[in-house]
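Project outcomes to date are best conveyed with an example. Our students and postdoctoral researchers have been running inverse folding experiments weekly, and each run begins with a structure described purely in C-alpha coordinates. The record below, which covers 399 residues, was selected by the lab manager from last quarter's runs and is presented without edits.
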Protein backbone atom coordinates (compact mmCIF):
# COMPACT_ATOMS: atom_id res chain seq x y z
CA UNK A 1 0.00 0.00 0.00
CA UNK A 2 1.38 3.38 -0.99
CA UNK A 3 1.59 6.17 1.57
CA UNK A 4 -1.00 8.14 -0.37
CA UNK A 5 -3.46 5.32 0.13
CA UNK A 6 -3.46 5.63 3.91
CA UNK A 7 -3.98 9.37 4.20
CA UNK A 8 -7.20 10.80 5.63
CA UNK A 9 -10.11 11.74 3.38
CA UNK A 10 -10.96 15.13 1.84
CA UNK A 11 -10.47 18.42 3.67
CA UNK A 12 -14.00 18.56 5.07
CA UNK A 13 -13.45 15.14 6.65
CA UNK A 14 -10.22 16.33 8.27
CA UNK A 15 -12.00 19.38 9.67
CA UNK A 16 -14.64 17.13 11.18
CA UNK A 17 -11.96 15.00 12.83
CA UNK A 18 -10.27 18.15 14.19
CA UNK A 19 -13.57 19.22 15.74
CA UNK A 20 -14.09 15.77 17.26
CA UNK A 21 -10.59 15.81 18.67
CA UNK A 22 -11.00 19.26 20.26
CA UNK A 23 -14.32 18.25 21.82
CA UNK A 24 -12.87 15.02 23.19
CA UNK A 25 -9.79 16.78 24.54
CA UNK A 26 -11.97 19.24 26.45
CA UNK A 27 -14.12 16.46 27.86
CA UNK A 28 -10.99 14.57 28.87
CA UNK A 29 -10.11 17.36 31.30
CA UNK A 30 -13.31 16.62 33.18
CA UNK A 31 -12.58 12.92 32.97
CA UNK A 32 -9.08 13.28 34.39
CA UNK A 33 -10.49 15.27 37.32
CA UNK A 34 -12.95 12.47 38.08
CA UNK A 35 -10.66 9.56 37.31
CA UNK A 36 -7.57 10.33 39.32
CA UNK A 37 -5.07 7.46 39.11
CA UNK A 38 -5.10 3.79 40.05
CA UNK A 39 -3.99 3.11 43.60
CA UNK A 40 -0.57 1.75 42.65
CA UNK A 41 0.44 1.84 46.31
CA UNK A 42 -1.99 -1.06 46.85
CA UNK A 43 0.27 -3.40 44.86
CA UNK A 44 1.53 -5.93 47.38
CA UNK A 45 -1.47 -5.54 49.70
CA UNK A 46 -2.71 -8.82 51.19
CA UNK A 47 -6.08 -10.19 52.28
CA UNK A 48 -6.83 -13.39 54.15
CA UNK A 49 -10.19 -13.58 52.36
CA UNK A 50 -11.63 -11.61 49.47
CA UNK A 51 -15.21 -12.25 48.32
CA UNK A 52 -16.34 -10.93 44.95
CA UNK A 53 -19.80 -11.76 43.61
CA UNK A 54 -20.06 -14.90 45.69
CA UNK A 55 -16.58 -16.17 44.82
CA UNK A 56 -14.20 -16.43 47.78
CA UNK A 57 -10.46 -15.98 47.19
CA UNK A 58 -8.07 -16.99 49.98
CA UNK A 59 -4.51 -15.88 50.78
CA UNK A 60 -4.79 -12.96 48.37
CA UNK A 61 -1.98 -10.67 47.28
CA UNK A 62 -2.50 -7.75 44.89
CA UNK A 63 -0.03 -7.94 41.99
CA UNK A 64 -1.30 -5.21 39.63
CA UNK A 65 -3.87 -2.41 39.57
CA UNK A 66 -5.21 -0.56 36.53
CA UNK A 67 -7.93 2.06 36.21
CA UNK A 68 -10.55 -0.68 35.75
CA UNK A 69 -9.11 -3.95 37.09
CA UNK A 70 -7.13 -5.45 39.93
CA UNK A 71 -5.02 -8.58 39.40
CA UNK A 72 -4.58 -10.85 42.39
CA UNK A 73 -2.60 -13.94 43.22
CA UNK A 74 -4.56 -16.31 45.50
CA UNK A 75 -4.34 -19.83 46.89
CA UNK A 76 -5.72 -21.38 43.70
CA UNK A 77 -3.91 -19.27 41.11
CA UNK A 78 -4.30 -15.81 39.55
CA UNK A 79 -7.44 -13.79 38.84
CA UNK A 80 -8.19 -10.43 37.28
CA UNK A 81 -11.21 -8.68 38.81
CA UNK A 82 -13.17 -5.73 37.48
CA UNK A 83 -13.04 -2.89 39.99
CA UNK A 84 -16.71 -2.19 39.33
CA UNK A 85 -17.53 -5.63 40.77
CA UNK A 86 -15.96 -4.81 44.15
CA UNK A 87 -17.70 -3.33 47.17
CA UNK A 88 -17.61 0.44 47.78
CA UNK A 89 -14.85 0.23 50.41
CA UNK A 90 -12.52 -1.72 48.12
CA UNK A 91 -13.38 0.48 45.15
CA UNK A 92 -12.31 3.52 47.14
CA UNK A 93 -9.15 1.76 48.29
CA UNK A 94 -8.18 0.97 44.69
CA UNK A 95 -9.02 4.46 43.45
CA UNK A 96 -12.02 3.42 41.34
CA UNK A 97 -14.68 5.90 40.23
CA UNK A 98 -17.89 4.60 38.63
CA UNK A 99 -18.69 8.10 37.41
CA UNK A 100 -15.30 8.35 35.72
CA UNK A 101 -15.68 4.97 34.03
CA UNK A 102 -19.19 5.82 32.83
CA UNK A 103 -18.00 9.16 31.49
CA UNK A 104 -15.04 7.61 29.72
CA UNK A 105 -17.21 4.95 28.09
CA UNK A 106 -19.75 7.60 27.06
CA UNK A 107 -17.05 9.80 25.55
CA UNK A 108 -15.48 6.94 23.62
CA UNK A 109 -18.84 5.57 22.47
CA UNK A 110 -20.01 8.99 21.29
CA UNK A 111 -16.73 9.67 19.55
CA UNK A 112 -16.78 6.29 17.78
CA UNK A 113 -20.32 6.94 16.53
CA UNK A 114 -19.38 10.41 15.29
CA UNK A 115 -16.26 9.01 13.69
CA UNK A 116 -18.26 6.30 11.91
CA UNK A 117 -20.78 8.87 10.66
CA UNK A 118 -18.00 11.15 9.42
CA UNK A 119 -16.24 8.26 7.71
CA UNK A 120 -19.47 7.13 6.04
CA UNK A 121 -19.99 10.62 4.62
CA UNK A 122 -16.62 10.65 2.85
CA UNK A 123 -16.77 9.96 -0.90
CA UNK A 124 -15.08 6.76 -2.02
CA UNK A 125 -13.71 6.17 -5.46
CA UNK A 126 -13.56 2.40 -4.96
CA UNK A 127 -16.05 0.36 -2.98
CA UNK A 128 -14.56 -1.19 0.14
CA UNK A 129 -14.35 -4.97 -0.03
CA UNK A 130 -16.76 -6.75 2.24
CA UNK A 131 -14.83 -8.31 5.14
CA UNK A 132 -14.84 -12.05 5.36
CA UNK A 133 -17.18 -13.62 7.87
CA UNK A 134 -15.47 -14.03 11.19
CA UNK A 135 -15.89 -17.80 11.10
CA UNK A 136 -13.88 -17.89 7.86
CA UNK A 137 -10.85 -16.14 9.35
CA UNK A 138 -7.96 -17.66 11.27
CA UNK A 139 -9.09 -15.83 14.41
CA UNK A 140 -12.67 -16.97 13.86
CA UNK A 141 -11.63 -20.59 13.54
CA UNK A 142 -9.61 -20.32 16.74
CA UNK A 143 -12.49 -18.71 18.62
CA UNK A 144 -14.81 -21.49 17.51
CA UNK A 145 -12.53 -24.03 19.21
CA UNK A 146 -12.14 -22.16 22.49
CA UNK A 147 -13.09 -24.33 25.43
CA UNK A 148 -12.13 -27.59 23.72
CA UNK A 149 -8.98 -29.67 24.03
CA UNK A 150 -6.16 -28.28 21.92
CA UNK A 151 -4.35 -30.38 19.35
CA UNK A 152 -0.69 -30.64 20.29
CA UNK A 153 1.56 -29.88 17.34
CA UNK A 154 4.46 -27.54 16.69
CA UNK A 155 4.12 -23.91 15.65
CA UNK A 156 6.85 -21.35 14.96
CA UNK A 157 5.87 -17.99 13.43
CA UNK A 158 9.40 -16.56 13.67
CA UNK A 159 10.27 -17.35 10.02
CA UNK A 160 7.16 -15.47 8.90
CA UNK A 161 8.06 -12.50 11.12
CA UNK A 162 11.55 -12.48 9.54
CA UNK A 163 10.11 -12.79 6.03
CA UNK A 164 7.92 -9.75 6.70
CA UNK A 165 10.93 -7.92 8.21
CA UNK A 166 8.98 -7.43 11.44
CA UNK A 167 12.00 -7.76 13.68
CA UNK A 168 12.28 -7.49 17.43
CA UNK A 169 12.12 -3.91 18.66
CA UNK A 170 13.40 -2.32 21.85
CA UNK A 171 11.10 -0.36 24.14
CA UNK A 172 14.10 1.44 25.62
CA UNK A 173 13.66 2.83 29.13
CA UNK A 174 9.93 3.38 28.73
CA UNK A 175 7.62 1.00 30.65
CA UNK A 176 5.69 0.30 27.46
CA UNK A 177 5.91 -3.48 27.07
CA UNK A 178 2.12 -3.84 26.65
CA UNK A 179 2.18 -1.33 23.79
CA UNK A 180 5.06 -3.09 22.02
CA UNK A 181 3.49 -6.53 22.47
CA UNK A 182 0.17 -5.34 21.05
CA UNK A 183 1.85 -3.56 18.12
CA UNK A 184 3.88 -6.69 17.33
CA UNK A 185 0.68 -8.72 16.97
CA UNK A 186 -1.04 -5.88 15.10
CA UNK A 187 1.77 -5.65 12.54
CA UNK A 188 1.66 -9.40 11.91
CA UNK A 189 -2.14 -9.51 11.60
CA UNK A 190 -2.17 -6.36 9.49
CA UNK A 191 0.25 -7.98 7.04
CA UNK A 192 -2.07 -10.99 6.83
CA UNK A 193 -4.99 -8.66 6.05
CA UNK A 194 -3.36 -6.47 3.38
CA UNK A 195 -0.69 -8.79 1.97
CA UNK A 196 2.43 -6.90 3.01
CA UNK A 197 4.11 -5.58 6.14
CA UNK A 198 3.74 -2.08 7.54
CA UNK A 199 5.60 -0.73 10.57
CA UNK A 200 3.17 0.83 13.06
CA UNK A 201 3.73 3.58 15.62
CA UNK A 202 4.21 2.62 19.27
CA UNK A 203 4.68 6.33 20.02
CA UNK A 204 1.13 7.04 18.89
CA UNK A 205 -0.33 4.15 20.88
CA UNK A 206 1.42 5.33 24.06
CA UNK A 207 -0.13 8.76 23.54
CA UNK A 208 -3.56 7.24 22.77
CA UNK A 209 -3.51 5.02 25.86
CA UNK A 210 -2.72 7.95 28.12
CA UNK A 211 -5.47 9.93 26.39
CA UNK A 212 -8.16 7.27 26.91
CA UNK A 213 -7.12 6.93 30.56
CA UNK A 214 -7.53 10.66 31.06
CA UNK A 215 -3.93 11.17 32.23
CA UNK A 216 -3.08 14.85 31.74
CA UNK A 217 -0.17 15.71 29.46
CA UNK A 218 3.06 16.17 31.38
CA UNK A 219 1.93 14.00 34.29
CA UNK A 220 3.54 10.61 34.94
CA UNK A 221 1.58 7.78 36.53
CA UNK A 222 3.80 6.46 39.32
CA UNK A 223 3.65 3.25 41.32
CA UNK A 224 5.59 2.68 44.54
CA UNK A 225 7.84 -0.35 44.65
CA UNK A 226 8.80 -2.53 47.55
CA UNK A 227 11.95 -2.32 49.67
CA UNK A 228 15.25 -2.87 47.94
CA UNK A 229 14.14 -1.20 44.71
CA UNK A 230 13.80 2.39 43.54
CA UNK A 231 11.09 4.23 45.43
CA UNK A 232 8.91 4.81 42.39
CA UNK A 233 8.67 4.00 38.71
CA UNK A 234 6.26 4.81 35.92
CA UNK A 235 3.34 2.40 36.22
CA UNK A 236 3.10 1.75 32.47
CA UNK A 237 -0.07 0.14 31.13
CA UNK A 238 -1.92 -3.15 31.27
CA UNK A 239 -3.27 -4.87 28.18
CA UNK A 240 -6.92 -3.85 28.48
CA UNK A 241 -5.88 -0.18 28.66
CA UNK A 242 -3.82 -0.45 25.47
CA UNK A 243 -6.54 -2.40 23.65
CA UNK A 244 -9.13 0.25 24.54
CA UNK A 245 -6.84 2.86 23.01
CA UNK A 246 -6.47 0.85 19.79
CA UNK A 247 -10.23 0.55 19.45
CA UNK A 248 -10.77 4.25 20.15
CA UNK A 249 -7.88 5.83 18.23
CA UNK A 250 -6.57 3.27 15.76
CA UNK A 251 -2.88 3.30 14.89
CA UNK A 252 -0.89 5.02 12.11
CA UNK A 253 2.30 4.07 10.32
CA UNK A 254 5.50 4.50 12.28
CA UNK A 255 6.67 6.96 9.64
CA UNK A 256 3.72 9.23 10.51
CA UNK A 257 4.72 9.38 14.17
CA UNK A 258 8.21 7.92 14.74
CA UNK A 259 9.35 6.71 18.15
CA UNK A 260 11.37 9.20 20.20
CA UNK A 261 12.91 7.17 22.99
CA UNK A 262 14.65 10.11 24.63
CA UNK A 263 11.25 11.62 25.38
CA UNK A 264 9.38 10.58 28.53
CA UNK A 265 5.94 9.13 27.83
CA UNK A 266 4.15 11.98 29.61
CA UNK A 267 5.87 14.50 27.31
CA UNK A 268 4.68 13.01 24.01
CA UNK A 269 2.80 15.89 22.32
CA UNK A 270 -0.61 15.54 20.73
CA UNK A 271 -0.31 14.20 17.16
CA UNK A 272 -1.58 16.30 14.28
CA UNK A 273 -5.29 15.83 13.64
CA UNK A 274 -4.44 14.45 10.18
CA UNK A 275 -2.42 11.65 11.81
CA UNK A 276 -5.31 10.80 14.14
CA UNK A 277 -7.77 10.77 11.24
CA UNK A 278 -5.45 8.55 9.21
CA UNK A 279 -4.95 6.16 12.12
CA UNK A 280 -8.67 5.74 12.70
CA UNK A 281 -9.61 5.25 9.08
CA UNK A 282 -6.97 2.73 8.01
CA UNK A 283 -8.02 -0.58 9.57
CA UNK A 284 -10.82 -2.32 11.40
CA UNK A 285 -9.32 -3.88 14.53
CA UNK A 286 -11.12 -6.41 16.74
CA UNK A 287 -9.67 -7.72 20.00
CA UNK A 288 -10.71 -10.83 21.90
CA UNK A 289 -9.67 -11.65 25.44
CA UNK A 290 -8.77 -15.34 25.72
CA UNK A 291 -11.23 -16.83 28.22
CA UNK A 292 -10.85 -19.66 30.70
CA UNK A 293 -11.99 -20.60 34.20
CA UNK A 294 -8.33 -21.29 34.97
CA UNK A 295 -4.97 -20.99 33.28
CA UNK A 296 -5.09 -24.55 31.92
CA UNK A 297 -8.14 -23.60 29.84
CA UNK A 298 -6.57 -20.29 28.80
CA UNK A 299 -3.41 -22.09 27.69
CA UNK A 300 -5.43 -24.57 25.61
CA UNK A 301 -7.23 -21.64 23.96
CA UNK A 302 -3.88 -19.93 23.32
CA UNK A 303 -2.72 -23.09 21.55
CA UNK A 304 -5.87 -23.04 19.38
CA UNK A 305 -4.92 -19.53 18.23
CA UNK A 306 -1.28 -20.43 17.59
CA UNK A 307 -2.37 -23.54 15.66
CA UNK A 308 -4.23 -21.17 13.31
CA UNK A 309 -1.11 -19.03 12.84
CA UNK A 310 -2.37 -16.23 15.08
CA UNK A 311 0.09 -14.65 17.56
CA UNK A 312 -1.19 -14.13 21.10
CA UNK A 313 -0.38 -11.19 23.36
CA UNK A 314 -0.06 -12.11 27.03
CA UNK A 315 0.51 -10.38 30.34
CA UNK A 316 2.31 -12.42 32.97
CA UNK A 317 4.29 -12.27 36.18
CA UNK A 318 7.97 -11.70 35.45
CA UNK A 319 11.10 -12.69 37.38
CA UNK A 320 14.00 -10.48 38.35
CA UNK A 321 16.53 -10.10 35.55
CA UNK A 322 19.21 -11.72 37.71
CA UNK A 323 17.27 -15.01 37.65
CA UNK A 324 17.07 -15.01 33.84
CA UNK A 325 20.50 -16.49 33.12
CA UNK A 326 18.97 -18.07 30.01
CA UNK A 327 15.98 -16.69 28.08
CA UNK A 328 13.69 -19.41 29.45
CA UNK A 329 10.94 -18.91 32.02
CA UNK A 330 10.77 -22.05 34.12
CA UNK A 331 10.93 -22.23 37.91
CA UNK A 332 11.79 -18.60 38.65
CA UNK A 333 9.66 -16.70 41.13
CA UNK A 334 8.05 -13.56 39.68
CA UNK A 335 8.87 -10.22 41.23
CA UNK A 336 6.21 -8.87 43.54
CA UNK A 337 4.13 -6.15 41.94
CA UNK A 338 5.80 -6.50 38.53
CA UNK A 339 4.35 -7.82 35.30
CA UNK A 340 5.45 -7.90 31.68
CA UNK A 341 3.78 -8.31 28.29
CA UNK A 342 5.13 -10.33 25.36
CA UNK A 343 3.82 -11.82 22.13
CA UNK A 344 3.57 -15.61 21.88
CA UNK A 345 4.59 -16.76 18.39
CA UNK A 346 4.70 -20.54 18.71
CA UNK A 347 5.24 -23.60 20.85
CA UNK A 348 6.89 -27.03 20.74
CA UNK A 349 7.36 -30.16 22.84
CA UNK A 350 10.53 -32.20 22.42
CA UNK A 351 8.82 -35.29 23.86
CA UNK A 352 5.43 -34.80 22.25
CA UNK A 353 3.87 -34.56 25.71
CA UNK A 354 1.75 -31.61 26.81
CA UNK A 355 3.63 -31.39 30.11
CA UNK A 356 6.84 -30.59 28.19
CA UNK A 357 5.45 -27.79 26.00
CA UNK A 358 7.63 -24.68 25.68
CA UNK A 359 6.11 -21.50 24.27
CA UNK A 360 8.13 -19.14 22.07
CA UNK A 361 7.67 -15.44 22.74
CA UNK A 362 8.80 -12.24 21.09
CA UNK A 363 10.12 -9.74 23.62
CA UNK A 364 10.60 -5.97 23.32
CA UNK A 365 14.13 -5.65 24.69
CA UNK A 366 15.98 -5.63 21.37
CA UNK A 367 17.72 -8.33 19.34
CA UNK A 368 20.57 -8.75 21.84
CA UNK A 369 18.22 -10.17 24.45
CA UNK A 370 17.59 -13.91 24.42
CA UNK A 371 17.77 -15.66 21.05
CA UNK A 372 17.63 -12.77 18.62
CA UNK A 373 15.07 -11.03 20.81
CA UNK A 374 12.98 -14.16 21.43
CA UNK A 375 12.59 -16.24 24.58
CA UNK A 376 10.84 -19.36 25.82
CA UNK A 377 8.37 -20.16 28.58
CA UNK A 378 7.65 -23.58 30.01
CA UNK A 379 3.97 -24.45 30.20
CA UNK A 380 4.26 -24.79 33.98
CA UNK A 381 5.46 -21.20 34.28
CA UNK A 382 2.41 -19.95 32.38
CA UNK A 383 0.10 -22.08 34.51
CA UNK A 384 1.39 -20.32 37.61
CA UNK A 385 1.95 -16.80 36.30
CA UNK A 386 -0.30 -16.03 33.31
CA UNK A 387 -2.51 -12.99 33.96
CA UNK A 388 -4.32 -12.42 30.67
CA UNK A 389 -4.14 -13.16 26.95
CA UNK A 390 -5.64 -11.56 23.86
CA UNK A 391 -5.90 -12.27 20.14
CA UNK A 392 -6.22 -9.50 17.57
CA UNK A 393 -7.97 -9.52 14.21
CA UNK A 394 -7.31 -6.89 11.55
CA UNK A 395 -9.42 -6.22 8.47
CA UNK A 396 -8.74 -3.77 5.70
CA UNK A 397 -11.22 -0.91 5.38
CA UNK A 398 -10.24 -0.39 1.78
CA UNK A 399 -8.37 2.79 2.69
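After processing, the design step wrote out the following sequence:
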Amino acid sequence: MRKADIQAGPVHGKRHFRKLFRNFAAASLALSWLLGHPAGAQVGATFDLLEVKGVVYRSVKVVAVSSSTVTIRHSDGIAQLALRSLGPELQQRFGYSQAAEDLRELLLSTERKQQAAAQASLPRTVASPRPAARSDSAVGRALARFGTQAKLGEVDLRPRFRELELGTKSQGQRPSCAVFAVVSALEFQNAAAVGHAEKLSEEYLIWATRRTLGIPAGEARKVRLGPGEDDERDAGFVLDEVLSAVRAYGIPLQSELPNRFGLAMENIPDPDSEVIASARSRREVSTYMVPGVNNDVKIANIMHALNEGVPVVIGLGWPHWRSLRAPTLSEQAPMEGYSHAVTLVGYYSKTGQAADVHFIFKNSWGVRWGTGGYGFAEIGYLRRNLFEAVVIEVRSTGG
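The chain has eleven helices and 14 strands. Confidence is low (pLDDT under 50) at residues 1-14, 24-38, 122-133, 224-234. The training component of this project remains on track.
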